[in-house]
Amino acid sequence: MTTWTHRVAPGVAASHPATAEAGLRILRAGGTAADAAVAAVFAACASETVYTGLGGGGFATYFDAASGEVTCLDFFTAVPGTDGDLLPGPMVAVDVFFGGVPQVYSISGASVAVPGVPAGCGEVHRRWGRLAWDELVAPAYEVAVAGVTMPEAHARTLAACAPALAYGDGAAIYAPGGRLLGGGDRLFHPGLSTAFEKLAVEGPDLFYTGAYAALMVDTVRAAGGALGPQDLADYRVLETPVDHAALGPYRVRARHDLNRTVDTIAALPAALAALPRPERAVTLAAALRDRGRQKIGDTTNVSVVDQAGNACVITTTLGLGAAVWLPELGINLNSMLGEGELITDDLAPGRRMSSNMCPLVVIDETGALAVAAGSAGASRIRTALIDTLIGVLVDGLDMPSAIARGRFHVVDDTVHAEPGCPRDELAALAEAGWRIQEWPEIDHYFGGVTAVGVGGAAGDPRRGGVGLLL
Predict the structure, then answer these.
(1) Is-contact 100 135, C-beta < 8 A?
(2) Residue 1, in any domain of the structure
(3) Partner residues linked to 238 by β-bridges
(4) How far apart are CA 136 and CA 225, in angstroms?
(5) DSSP classification of residue 394
(6) For the chain, how many structural domains are there in total?
(7) Using CA atoms, how far apart are residues 315 and 301, in angstroms rounded to an integer?
């Protein structure tokens, strides 16, 4: 077990250069980790729209260095229908190919849940921000005015998700002239700068009780959804309990997610660091076994640490996007009610939906921050985060190396392995009875970690990620 002793340098990690630069700009201006994370999330809503947007939802984890307190906020999507005056219509089924296998998703107005990104960012800023609200929105506005270059990794996601993203009004955005955007092409959303300009002035209420609330209700209902004005007016950000687990001398803290990430860490053997790597791989495969869930997970994450050692990690998503766009504003709404693995028996109007997202922080023996991290990847979020934490805190790798190294993910009796997984580990897994499915290259299937910690700052090459230090 590696015990790092030096302080975490301030920085930002994200899945697009424009996202990370927005956060770094706010840190340079004297903003807190919360300020910078909010600015980065908004920038992601313009630069990473294959993953997230103002019409999505998410979670935030904040570490206060002075008190050692960790807070988890839930601003994920809620089930609409509290107005009770309308039943949703049918959804539109689309096939998305993922790992060569078709996955059925559902989009349309009936798939739209109550969005939480504007409210969540507002609450993070209210609790822990220092700079003025409009300063945090400014970088996103500038990105929306100019557009951004689409990274190759995002283009691969777009190609996989085109049946949903380039459906209907999305075709003009993601497939102008009938050709899907590729790596290096400009991504631009007409009208999105107008939305950010108005958000900077009016704040998050714009989407819940302001002019955009009525527009959202009308748009969703016209597309067959049941979203109503009461759903939006009643939406609140929730504070959720913080789970705890030991990883050697470190403490991992995060929300209790659908895939039980923190519980999985807690169940790992205390002597994990002493196990030979092949034996450790077999132990991890058993702990990380996932039963039948393979959804693509269009999600993104920003991780920020400021000069005072505070950390803010925010994970957000649109699902695949409902292909329901707010007119003239370039905002695609979420498709969370069309995500089969998130539909649970207890869902009812007004209830918050479940998620695999798990923004986390790791605290060292002295009470100081060791790692701030989160990941994209649906059911692979747990795998990606645990592998990264082991890479940095057990194997002593720097953050870029820990995130970039080959991962494996276990579904039922199959170990899906990226290039770079050590041959002796794969041999031990095969000998233990696992079926090995080797992938030809690293892939966004295996998640998308962004992290700032003792090993530096890094984004995931599977998602075009970057890490920038102040």
Answers:
(1) no
(2) no
(3) 74
(4) 32
(5) I
(6) 1
(7) 4
Give the mean model confidence (pLDDT) for residues 11-26.
98
By percentage, how much of the chain surpasses pLDDT 90? 85
**What is the predicted pLDDT for the residue at 344?**
67
User: Is 65's pLDDT higher than 60?
Assistant: yes
Instruction: Give me the domain span that covers residue 302.
Output: 11-461
**Residue 337 covered by a domain:** yes
pLDDT at 452: 98
Q: Give the strand order in the sheet containing 57-63.
A: 238-240, 70-75, 57-63, 311-317, 299-305, 11-14, 466-469
**What is the spatial distance between Cα 175 and Cα 414, in angstroms, rounded to a whole number?**
36
Q: 1 forms bridges with which residues in the sheet? A: none
Two tokens at 325? 């766009």
CATH number at residue 381: 3.60.20.40
Report strand pairing: 408-411 vs 331-332. Answer: unpaired
Cβ distance 105 to 94 under 8 Å?
A: yes
Query: Per the structure block, which two tokens stand in for 55?
Result: 């019409």
Tokens 């507002």 found at: 122
Shortest CA distance to 359 belongs to which of 463, 216, 262?
Answer: 262
For residue 220, being part of any structural domain is answered with yes
User: Residue 100 pLDDT more than 80?
Assistant: no
Give 169-213 pLDDT, tens digit per residue: 999 999 999 999 999 999 999 999 999 999 999 999 999 999 999
Q: Evaluate if residue 101 carries a pLDDT over 90.
A: no
C-alpha–C-alpha distance, residues 181 and 170, integer Å: 12
Q: Return d(Cα 316, Cα 301) in angstroms, integer.
A: 6
- Cα–Cα distance between 306 and 29 in angstroms, integer? 11
The CA distance from 213 to 215, in Å, is 5
| 287-319 per-residue burial string, b: 16 or more CB within 10 A, e: under 16 | bbbbeebbbbbbbbbbbbbbeebbbbbbbbbbb
Residues 6+ apart with CB under 8 A from 113: 57, 77, 78, 79, 80, 334, 336, 337, 353
CA-derived radius of gyration, the chain: 21
The share of the chain scoring above pLDDT 70, in percent, equals 96
Residue 6 lies in a domain: no
User: 187, 45 in Cβ contact below 8 A?
Assistant: no
Element (H, E) at 409: strand 408-411
The per-residue pLDDT for range 72-97, each reduced to its tens digit, is: 999 999 999 999 877 788 898 888 87
How does DSSP assign 142-176, residue by residue?
HHHHH-EEPPHHHHHHHHHHHHHHTSTTHHHHHSG
Instruction: Give pLDDT, residue 231.
Output: 98
The per-residue pLDDT for 293 is 54
Between CA 27 and CA 130 the distance in angstroms is 11
